[in-house]
What does this fold into?
Amino acid sequence: MTAFLAIVKLTCRSAVRSHIFRLLLLLLLLSIFLLPFTLLGDGTPKGEVQIFLQYCLGFVGFILCLSSVWLACSEVSSDVETAQIHMIVVKPVRRVVILLGKYTGVVLIHLALLLIAAVTVYAFLSFRLASTEMSDGDRLMLDEQVLTARAVYKPVRPDFNALAQAELDRRIALAKEHGQDTFRFQDDQMRQEAFLEIRKELIATYGLISEGESIYWQFEGLPKDLTDDDIVFLRFTIYVNRYYVQDQNSVRGHWVFAANYKRPDDNGGETVVTDLMAIPEDDYLTASQNETAVPIRNSYFVYDGKAEVGFLNKDTKTSELNFEEGRGPFLLIREAGFFSNYCRAILVLAIGILSVTLLAAAVAACMSLPIAIFFSAAYMLTGGLANYLVTSIPDSIDYQAEYTGTFGYRFGDLMLNLIVPLQDFFVTGHLANGELIDFPFIGMLFAKDFVLRMLPVFLLGAWIYTRRELALVSKRG
It folds into this structure.
Protein backbone atom coordinates (compact mmCIF):
# COMPACT_ATOMS: atom_id res chain seq x y z
CA MET A 1 0.00 0.00 0.00
CA THR A 2 2.89 2.37 0.73
CA ALA A 3 4.33 1.83 -2.76
CA PHE A 4 0.89 2.38 -4.33
CA LEU A 5 0.38 5.68 -2.49
CA ALA A 6 3.88 6.80 -3.40
CA ILE A 7 3.19 6.18 -7.10
CA VAL A 8 -0.09 8.09 -6.86
CA LYS A 9 1.72 11.02 -5.24
CA LEU A 10 4.50 11.02 -7.86
CA THR A 11 1.93 10.90 -10.67
CA CYS A 12 0.14 13.97 -9.32
CA ARG A 13 3.42 15.84 -9.03
CA SER A 14 4.41 14.88 -12.56
CA ALA A 15 1.05 16.11 -13.88
CA VAL A 16 1.59 19.56 -12.40
CA ARG A 17 4.96 19.83 -14.16
CA SER A 18 3.55 18.80 -17.57
CA HIS A 19 3.34 21.71 -20.05
CA ILE A 20 0.47 20.11 -21.97
CA PHE A 21 -1.45 19.62 -18.75
CA ARG A 22 -0.91 23.27 -17.82
CA LEU A 23 -2.19 24.33 -21.24
CA LEU A 24 -5.33 22.21 -20.85
CA LEU A 25 -5.79 23.56 -17.34
CA LEU A 26 -5.64 27.10 -18.75
CA LEU A 27 -8.33 26.19 -21.28
CA LEU A 28 -10.41 24.79 -18.42
CA LEU A 29 -10.14 28.06 -16.49
CA LEU A 30 -11.06 30.05 -19.59
CA SER A 31 -14.13 27.87 -20.14
CA ILE A 32 -15.28 28.51 -16.58
CA PHE A 33 -14.67 32.25 -16.34
CA LEU A 34 -14.93 33.53 -19.93
CA LEU A 35 -17.58 31.39 -21.62
CA PRO A 36 -20.42 32.67 -19.39
CA PHE A 37 -19.78 36.21 -20.67
CA THR A 38 -19.60 35.24 -24.35
CA LEU A 39 -22.57 32.88 -24.65
CA LEU A 40 -25.87 34.37 -25.74
CA GLY A 41 -29.15 32.51 -25.83
CA ASP A 42 -32.43 33.48 -27.47
CA GLY A 43 -32.71 36.65 -25.40
CA THR A 44 -34.85 35.09 -22.67
CA PRO A 45 -33.61 34.14 -19.19
CA LYS A 46 -34.60 30.54 -19.89
CA GLY A 47 -32.57 30.41 -23.11
CA GLU A 48 -29.51 32.04 -21.53
CA VAL A 49 -29.46 29.59 -18.62
CA GLN A 50 -29.89 26.63 -20.96
CA ILE A 51 -27.00 27.75 -23.18
CA PHE A 52 -24.85 28.44 -20.12
CA LEU A 53 -25.41 24.97 -18.67
CA GLN A 54 -24.95 23.13 -21.94
CA TYR A 55 -21.80 24.81 -23.16
CA CYS A 56 -19.97 25.54 -19.91
CA LEU A 57 -20.36 22.06 -18.43
CA GLY A 58 -19.95 20.43 -21.83
CA PHE A 59 -16.67 22.23 -22.49
CA VAL A 60 -15.45 21.46 -18.96
CA GLY A 61 -16.16 17.76 -19.46
CA PHE A 62 -14.49 17.71 -22.88
CA ILE A 63 -11.31 19.42 -21.63
CA LEU A 64 -11.04 17.12 -18.61
CA CYS A 65 -11.55 13.98 -20.73
CA LEU A 66 -8.94 15.20 -23.21
CA SER A 67 -6.51 16.04 -20.41
CA SER A 68 -6.99 12.70 -18.66
CA VAL A 69 -6.29 10.81 -21.90
CA TRP A 70 -3.12 12.79 -22.56
CA LEU A 71 -1.84 12.53 -19.00
CA ALA A 72 -2.57 8.79 -18.66
CA CYS A 73 -0.78 8.05 -21.93
CA SER A 74 2.13 10.28 -20.95
CA GLU A 75 2.57 8.90 -17.44
CA VAL A 76 2.49 5.25 -18.45
CA SER A 77 4.32 5.38 -21.79
CA SER A 78 6.97 7.99 -20.96
CA ASP A 79 8.35 6.05 -18.01
CA VAL A 80 8.93 3.07 -20.26
CA GLU A 81 10.38 5.06 -23.17
CA THR A 82 12.75 7.09 -20.97
CA ALA A 83 13.80 4.01 -18.97
CA GLN A 84 12.68 5.64 -15.71
CA ILE A 85 10.56 2.59 -15.08
CA HIS A 86 13.74 0.69 -14.16
CA MET A 87 14.04 2.79 -11.00
CA ILE A 88 10.74 1.34 -9.83
CA VAL A 89 10.72 -2.23 -11.08
CA VAL A 90 14.04 -3.01 -9.38
CA LYS A 91 12.17 -2.61 -6.11
CA PRO A 92 9.65 -5.18 -4.83
CA VAL A 93 6.71 -3.50 -6.59
CA ARG A 94 4.49 -5.39 -8.99
CA ARG A 95 3.85 -3.81 -12.37
CA VAL A 96 0.09 -4.00 -11.83
CA VAL A 97 0.51 -1.83 -8.75
CA ILE A 98 2.51 0.66 -10.83
CA LEU A 99 -0.19 0.83 -13.49
CA LEU A 100 -3.00 1.13 -10.92
CA GLY A 101 -1.09 3.83 -9.05
CA LYS A 102 -0.61 5.92 -12.17
CA TYR A 103 -4.24 5.45 -13.16
CA THR A 104 -5.42 6.46 -9.69
CA GLY A 105 -3.19 9.53 -9.66
CA VAL A 106 -4.49 10.75 -13.02
CA VAL A 107 -8.10 10.10 -11.99
CA LEU A 108 -7.76 11.85 -8.61
CA ILE A 109 -6.30 15.04 -10.03
CA HIS A 110 -9.00 15.26 -12.72
CA LEU A 111 -11.84 14.45 -10.33
CA ALA A 112 -10.55 17.23 -8.08
CA LEU A 113 -10.55 19.61 -11.05
CA LEU A 114 -14.05 18.46 -11.99
CA LEU A 115 -15.28 19.17 -8.46
CA ILE A 116 -13.72 22.64 -8.45
CA ALA A 117 -15.16 23.42 -11.88
CA ALA A 118 -18.62 22.13 -10.89
CA VAL A 119 -18.72 24.24 -7.73
CA THR A 120 -17.52 27.31 -9.65
CA VAL A 121 -20.08 26.90 -12.43
CA TYR A 122 -22.91 26.37 -9.93
CA ALA A 123 -21.82 29.40 -7.87
CA PHE A 124 -21.62 31.55 -11.00
CA LEU A 125 -25.07 30.38 -12.09
CA SER A 126 -26.54 31.17 -8.67
CA PHE A 127 -24.93 34.62 -8.70
CA ARG A 128 -26.21 35.27 -12.21
CA LEU A 129 -29.75 34.28 -11.29
CA ALA A 130 -29.69 36.38 -8.13
CA SER A 131 -28.32 39.50 -9.85
CA THR A 132 -30.43 39.36 -13.02
CA GLU A 133 -33.71 41.24 -13.04
CA MET A 134 -36.55 39.27 -14.59
CA SER A 135 -40.29 39.21 -14.48
CA ASP A 136 -42.23 36.85 -12.25
CA GLY A 137 -43.31 34.94 -15.34
CA ASP A 138 -39.74 34.40 -16.54
CA ARG A 139 -38.59 33.31 -13.11
CA LEU A 140 -41.50 30.91 -12.81
CA MET A 141 -40.68 29.47 -16.25
CA LEU A 142 -37.06 28.98 -15.17
CA ASP A 143 -38.07 27.22 -11.98
CA GLU A 144 -40.61 24.95 -13.68
CA GLN A 145 -38.84 24.14 -16.96
CA VAL A 146 -35.07 24.44 -16.36
CA LEU A 147 -34.17 24.58 -12.67
CA THR A 148 -35.90 21.30 -11.94
CA ALA A 149 -35.65 17.57 -12.66
CA ARG A 150 -38.61 16.13 -14.54
CA ALA A 151 -39.15 12.56 -15.60
CA VAL A 152 -39.97 12.27 -19.32
CA TYR A 153 -42.82 9.95 -20.29
CA LYS A 154 -43.20 8.87 -23.91
CA PRO A 155 -46.49 7.80 -25.52
CA VAL A 156 -47.22 4.15 -26.06
CA ARG A 157 -45.78 3.16 -29.42
CA PRO A 158 -48.31 1.49 -31.70
CA ASP A 159 -47.75 -2.13 -32.57
CA PHE A 160 -46.78 -1.53 -36.18
CA ASN A 161 -46.23 -5.24 -36.75
CA ALA A 162 -49.83 -6.05 -35.86
CA LEU A 163 -51.15 -3.06 -37.79
CA ALA A 164 -49.12 -4.01 -40.86
CA GLN A 165 -50.29 -7.62 -40.69
CA ALA A 166 -53.92 -6.53 -40.37
CA GLU A 167 -53.56 -4.16 -43.33
CA LEU A 168 -51.92 -6.89 -45.41
CA ASP A 169 -54.74 -9.32 -44.60
CA ARG A 170 -57.28 -6.64 -45.46
CA ARG A 171 -55.67 -5.98 -48.83
CA ILE A 172 -55.54 -9.69 -49.66
CA ALA A 173 -59.19 -10.16 -48.69
CA LEU A 174 -60.21 -7.10 -50.71
CA ALA A 175 -58.31 -8.39 -53.73
CA LYS A 176 -60.07 -11.76 -53.48
CA GLU A 177 -63.47 -10.08 -53.24
CA HIS A 178 -62.81 -8.25 -56.48
CA GLY A 179 -61.48 -11.38 -58.15
CA GLN A 180 -57.98 -9.96 -58.49
CA ASP A 181 -54.87 -12.09 -58.76
CA THR A 182 -53.24 -12.65 -55.35
CA PHE A 183 -50.37 -14.72 -56.70
CA ARG A 184 -47.80 -12.21 -55.52
CA PHE A 185 -48.82 -12.89 -51.91
CA GLN A 186 -48.52 -16.66 -52.14
CA ASP A 187 -44.75 -16.78 -52.00
CA ASP A 188 -43.39 -16.29 -48.45
CA GLN A 189 -40.66 -13.92 -49.58
CA MET A 190 -43.09 -11.77 -51.55
CA ARG A 191 -45.48 -11.73 -48.63
CA GLN A 192 -42.69 -10.63 -46.29
CA GLU A 193 -41.64 -7.87 -48.68
CA ALA A 194 -45.23 -6.62 -48.90
CA PHE A 195 -45.51 -6.74 -45.09
CA LEU A 196 -42.31 -4.70 -44.61
CA GLU A 197 -43.40 -2.16 -47.22
CA ILE A 198 -46.74 -1.66 -45.47
CA ARG A 199 -45.02 -1.40 -42.09
CA LYS A 200 -42.64 1.25 -43.38
CA GLU A 201 -45.55 3.16 -44.86
CA LEU A 202 -47.48 3.07 -41.57
CA ILE A 203 -44.50 4.38 -39.59
CA ALA A 204 -43.79 7.15 -42.09
CA THR A 205 -47.42 8.36 -42.11
CA TYR A 206 -48.25 7.73 -38.44
CA GLY A 207 -47.94 11.35 -37.29
CA LEU A 208 -49.39 13.03 -40.41
CA ILE A 209 -52.69 14.86 -39.94
CA SER A 210 -54.57 16.89 -42.55
CA GLU A 211 -56.65 19.97 -41.85
CA GLY A 212 -59.63 19.16 -39.65
CA GLU A 213 -58.20 15.80 -38.60
CA SER A 214 -56.89 14.81 -35.17
CA ILE A 215 -54.46 12.33 -33.67
CA TYR A 216 -54.33 10.87 -30.16
CA TRP A 217 -51.57 9.43 -28.00
CA GLN A 218 -51.89 7.14 -24.99
CA PHE A 219 -49.57 7.42 -21.98
CA GLU A 220 -49.00 4.72 -19.39
CA GLY A 221 -46.82 4.28 -16.31
CA LEU A 222 -47.48 7.78 -14.97
CA PRO A 223 -47.23 8.36 -11.19
CA LYS A 224 -50.41 7.41 -9.38
CA ASP A 225 -49.77 9.69 -6.40
CA LEU A 226 -49.92 13.00 -8.25
CA THR A 227 -51.72 15.86 -6.55
CA ASP A 228 -53.43 18.79 -8.20
CA ASP A 229 -50.50 20.97 -7.12
CA ASP A 230 -48.09 18.97 -9.30
CA ILE A 231 -47.66 20.50 -12.74
CA VAL A 232 -47.56 18.21 -15.77
CA PHE A 233 -45.92 19.69 -18.87
CA LEU A 234 -46.51 18.74 -22.48
CA ARG A 235 -43.45 18.96 -24.76
CA PHE A 236 -43.90 18.65 -28.51
CA THR A 237 -42.39 19.48 -31.90
CA ILE A 238 -44.56 20.04 -34.96
CA TYR A 239 -43.35 19.91 -38.56
CA VAL A 240 -44.99 20.92 -41.81
CA ASN A 241 -45.57 17.95 -44.10
CA ARG A 242 -43.09 15.09 -44.25
CA TYR A 243 -40.11 17.16 -45.34
CA TYR A 244 -39.72 19.31 -42.30
CA VAL A 245 -36.53 21.12 -43.28
CA GLN A 246 -38.38 23.66 -45.47
CA ASP A 247 -41.38 25.94 -45.19
CA GLN A 248 -41.38 26.00 -41.41
CA ASN A 249 -43.14 28.91 -39.70
CA SER A 250 -46.12 28.61 -37.40
CA VAL A 251 -49.28 26.51 -37.58
CA ARG A 252 -52.65 26.65 -35.90
CA GLY A 253 -54.46 24.01 -33.92
CA HIS A 254 -55.47 23.05 -30.42
CA TRP A 255 -54.71 20.31 -27.96
CA VAL A 256 -57.30 17.91 -26.63
CA PHE A 257 -57.01 16.23 -23.24
CA ALA A 258 -58.97 13.36 -21.77
CA ALA A 259 -60.77 14.26 -18.53
CA ASN A 260 -61.91 11.36 -16.33
CA TYR A 261 -64.94 11.79 -14.08
CA LYS A 262 -66.34 9.34 -11.54
CA ARG A 263 -70.12 9.07 -11.66
CA PRO A 264 -72.59 6.87 -9.78
CA ASP A 265 -73.77 3.81 -11.67
CA ASP A 266 -76.99 1.80 -11.43
CA ASN A 267 -75.44 -0.69 -8.99
CA GLY A 268 -74.69 1.91 -6.34
CA GLY A 269 -71.01 2.09 -7.23
CA GLU A 270 -68.99 4.43 -9.36
CA THR A 271 -67.97 4.29 -12.98
CA VAL A 272 -65.31 6.32 -14.76
CA VAL A 273 -66.50 8.42 -17.70
CA THR A 274 -63.97 9.97 -20.04
CA ASP A 275 -64.73 13.24 -21.81
CA LEU A 276 -62.47 15.17 -24.16
CA MET A 277 -61.59 18.74 -23.21
CA ALA A 278 -60.12 21.00 -25.91
CA ILE A 279 -58.18 24.16 -25.06
CA PRO A 280 -58.62 27.24 -27.29
CA GLU A 281 -56.89 27.33 -30.66
CA ASP A 282 -53.41 28.75 -30.73
CA ASP A 283 -50.41 29.26 -33.01
CA TYR A 284 -47.37 27.02 -32.51
CA LEU A 285 -43.87 27.38 -33.93
CA THR A 286 -42.82 24.50 -36.15
CA ALA A 287 -39.48 22.67 -36.17
CA SER A 288 -38.79 23.92 -32.63
CA GLN A 289 -39.42 22.56 -29.17
CA ASN A 290 -42.61 23.80 -27.51
CA GLU A 291 -43.72 23.32 -23.92
CA THR A 292 -47.02 24.03 -22.25
CA ALA A 293 -48.57 23.10 -18.94
CA VAL A 294 -51.45 20.63 -19.09
CA PRO A 295 -54.52 22.75 -18.19
CA ILE A 296 -56.37 19.99 -16.32
CA ARG A 297 -56.17 19.03 -12.70
CA ASN A 298 -54.19 15.83 -12.31
CA SER A 299 -57.04 14.15 -10.45
CA TYR A 300 -58.96 14.28 -13.74
CA PHE A 301 -56.16 14.05 -16.29
CA VAL A 302 -54.28 11.02 -14.91
CA TYR A 303 -56.33 7.96 -14.05
CA ASP A 304 -54.68 4.76 -12.82
CA GLY A 305 -51.34 5.95 -14.18
CA LYS A 306 -52.75 6.55 -17.67
CA ALA A 307 -53.56 9.65 -19.72
CA GLU A 308 -54.66 10.56 -23.23
CA VAL A 309 -53.60 13.56 -25.31
CA GLY A 310 -54.72 14.61 -28.79
CA PHE A 311 -54.15 17.38 -31.31
CA LEU A 312 -56.62 18.83 -33.81
CA ASN A 313 -55.17 20.42 -36.95
CA LYS A 314 -56.90 23.74 -37.65
CA ASP A 315 -54.22 25.18 -39.95
CA THR A 316 -55.49 26.27 -43.37
CA LYS A 317 -52.12 27.29 -44.86
CA THR A 318 -50.53 23.83 -45.00
CA SER A 319 -51.57 20.52 -46.47
CA GLU A 320 -50.45 18.38 -43.53
CA LEU A 321 -48.88 18.63 -40.11
CA ASN A 322 -46.40 16.04 -38.98
CA PHE A 323 -45.66 14.77 -35.47
CA GLU A 324 -42.58 12.69 -36.19
CA GLU A 325 -42.60 9.39 -34.36
CA GLY A 326 -40.02 9.63 -31.56
CA ARG A 327 -40.12 13.45 -31.27
CA GLY A 328 -43.14 13.88 -29.08
CA PRO A 329 -45.42 14.70 -27.59
CA PHE A 330 -43.96 13.89 -24.17
CA LEU A 331 -45.27 14.41 -20.67
CA LEU A 332 -42.86 15.79 -18.08
CA ILE A 333 -43.44 15.50 -14.33
CA ARG A 334 -41.15 16.89 -11.63
CA GLU A 335 -39.47 14.27 -9.46
CA ALA A 336 -36.42 16.03 -7.94
CA GLY A 337 -34.74 19.41 -7.53
CA PHE A 338 -32.20 21.11 -9.76
CA PHE A 339 -29.26 20.76 -7.36
CA SER A 340 -29.80 17.01 -7.13
CA ASN A 341 -29.97 16.78 -10.93
CA TYR A 342 -26.85 18.95 -11.25
CA CYS A 343 -24.91 16.61 -8.97
CA ARG A 344 -26.05 13.63 -11.05
CA ALA A 345 -24.80 15.31 -14.24
CA ILE A 346 -21.41 15.84 -12.57
CA LEU A 347 -21.43 12.20 -11.49
CA VAL A 348 -21.95 11.11 -15.10
CA LEU A 349 -19.01 13.28 -16.18
CA ALA A 350 -16.93 11.66 -13.43
CA ILE A 351 -17.80 8.22 -14.84
CA GLY A 352 -16.66 9.49 -18.22
CA ILE A 353 -13.29 10.54 -16.78
CA LEU A 354 -12.91 7.17 -15.08
CA SER A 355 -13.69 5.38 -18.34
CA VAL A 356 -11.52 7.31 -20.79
CA THR A 357 -8.59 7.27 -18.35
CA LEU A 358 -8.97 3.52 -18.02
CA LEU A 359 -8.81 3.21 -21.81
CA ALA A 360 -5.79 5.50 -22.13
CA ALA A 361 -3.86 3.71 -19.38
CA ALA A 362 -4.54 0.32 -20.96
CA VAL A 363 -3.44 1.48 -24.42
CA ALA A 364 -0.33 3.24 -23.05
CA ALA A 365 0.67 0.06 -21.22
CA CYS A 366 1.08 -1.65 -24.59
CA MET A 367 2.23 1.10 -26.96
CA SER A 368 4.50 4.09 -27.29
CA LEU A 369 3.23 7.58 -26.40
CA PRO A 370 2.32 8.83 -29.92
CA ILE A 371 0.61 5.59 -30.89
CA ALA A 372 -1.25 5.43 -27.56
CA ILE A 373 -2.59 8.96 -27.96
CA PHE A 374 -3.53 8.31 -31.59
CA PHE A 375 -5.29 5.05 -30.71
CA SER A 376 -7.22 6.63 -27.81
CA ALA A 377 -8.30 9.57 -29.97
CA ALA A 378 -9.29 7.24 -32.81
CA TYR A 379 -11.30 5.12 -30.38
CA MET A 380 -13.30 8.11 -29.17
CA LEU A 381 -13.78 9.50 -32.69
CA THR A 382 -14.99 6.12 -33.92
CA GLY A 383 -17.51 6.02 -31.08
CA GLY A 384 -18.76 9.47 -32.05
CA LEU A 385 -19.01 8.48 -35.71
CA ALA A 386 -20.93 5.31 -34.84
CA ASN A 387 -23.32 7.29 -32.66
CA TYR A 388 -23.87 9.77 -35.51
CA LEU A 389 -24.50 7.00 -38.06
CA VAL A 390 -27.27 5.54 -35.91
CA THR A 391 -28.88 8.66 -34.44
CA SER A 392 -28.81 10.68 -37.67
CA ILE A 393 -31.35 8.34 -39.24
CA PRO A 394 -34.79 9.97 -38.82
CA ASP A 395 -36.96 8.40 -36.16
CA SER A 396 -39.81 8.05 -38.65
CA ILE A 397 -37.82 5.57 -40.75
CA ASP A 398 -38.28 1.90 -40.13
CA TYR A 399 -34.72 0.78 -39.39
CA GLN A 400 -35.52 -2.88 -39.70
CA ALA A 401 -37.09 -2.62 -43.10
CA GLU A 402 -34.95 0.11 -44.65
CA TYR A 403 -31.53 0.42 -43.11
CA THR A 404 -30.35 -2.96 -41.87
CA GLY A 405 -29.12 -3.65 -45.38
CA THR A 406 -26.90 -0.56 -45.49
CA PHE A 407 -23.28 -0.70 -44.49
CA GLY A 408 -23.42 2.59 -42.58
CA TYR A 409 -26.14 1.55 -40.17
CA ARG A 410 -24.72 -1.94 -39.71
CA PHE A 411 -21.27 -0.52 -38.97
CA GLY A 412 -22.62 2.09 -36.55
CA ASP A 413 -24.77 -0.40 -34.67
CA LEU A 414 -21.87 -2.85 -34.39
CA MET A 415 -19.45 -0.18 -33.17
CA LEU A 416 -21.90 1.07 -30.55
CA ASN A 417 -21.97 -2.46 -29.10
CA LEU A 418 -18.17 -2.51 -28.87
CA ILE A 419 -17.01 1.07 -28.41
CA VAL A 420 -18.05 3.63 -25.81
CA PRO A 421 -19.05 6.91 -27.50
CA LEU A 422 -17.91 9.96 -25.58
CA GLN A 423 -21.40 11.44 -25.99
CA ASP A 424 -22.72 8.94 -23.44
CA PHE A 425 -21.19 11.00 -20.65
CA PHE A 426 -22.43 14.42 -21.74
CA VAL A 427 -25.92 14.78 -20.31
CA THR A 428 -25.85 18.57 -20.06
CA GLY A 429 -28.67 18.71 -22.61
CA HIS A 430 -30.93 16.81 -20.21
CA LEU A 431 -29.85 19.10 -17.37
CA ALA A 432 -30.54 22.26 -19.39
CA ASN A 433 -34.00 21.00 -20.37
CA GLY A 434 -34.93 20.18 -16.79
CA GLU A 435 -35.01 16.44 -17.50
CA LEU A 436 -34.31 13.99 -14.70
CA ILE A 437 -31.01 12.10 -14.83
CA ASP A 438 -32.17 9.11 -12.83
CA PHE A 439 -30.02 6.68 -10.89
CA PRO A 440 -31.04 3.61 -12.96
CA PHE A 441 -29.64 5.40 -16.02
CA ILE A 442 -26.41 6.25 -14.18
CA GLY A 443 -26.07 2.69 -12.91
CA MET A 444 -26.67 1.23 -16.37
CA LEU A 445 -24.12 3.65 -17.85
CA PHE A 446 -21.50 2.66 -15.27
CA ALA A 447 -22.15 -1.05 -15.73
CA LYS A 448 -22.30 -0.96 -19.53
CA ASP A 449 -19.49 1.47 -20.35
CA PHE A 450 -17.07 1.24 -17.44
CA VAL A 451 -17.44 -2.35 -16.21
CA LEU A 452 -18.39 -4.31 -19.33
CA ARG A 453 -16.45 -2.39 -22.00
CA MET A 454 -13.58 -0.40 -20.52
CA LEU A 455 -12.57 -2.67 -17.65
CA PRO A 456 -11.84 -5.73 -19.84
CA VAL A 457 -9.66 -3.52 -22.07
CA PHE A 458 -7.76 -2.31 -19.00
CA LEU A 459 -7.27 -5.84 -17.69
CA LEU A 460 -5.90 -6.90 -21.08
CA GLY A 461 -3.56 -3.92 -21.09
CA ALA A 462 -2.42 -4.66 -17.54
CA TRP A 463 -1.71 -8.28 -18.49
CA ILE A 464 0.41 -7.17 -21.46
CA TYR A 465 2.15 -4.59 -19.25
CA THR A 466 3.23 -7.28 -16.79
CA ARG A 467 4.83 -9.23 -19.65
CA ARG A 468 6.24 -6.35 -21.64
CA GLU A 469 10.01 -6.49 -22.19
CA LEU A 470 11.27 -3.32 -20.54
CA ALA A 471 15.00 -3.94 -21.10
CA LEU A 472 14.69 -3.08 -24.78
CA VAL A 473 13.89 0.56 -24.09
CA SER A 474 17.27 1.11 -22.46
CA LYS A 475 19.17 0.20 -25.62
CA ARG A 476 20.54 3.07 -27.65
CA GLY A 477 21.68 2.84 -31.21
Observations:
- The longest helix spans residues 45-81.
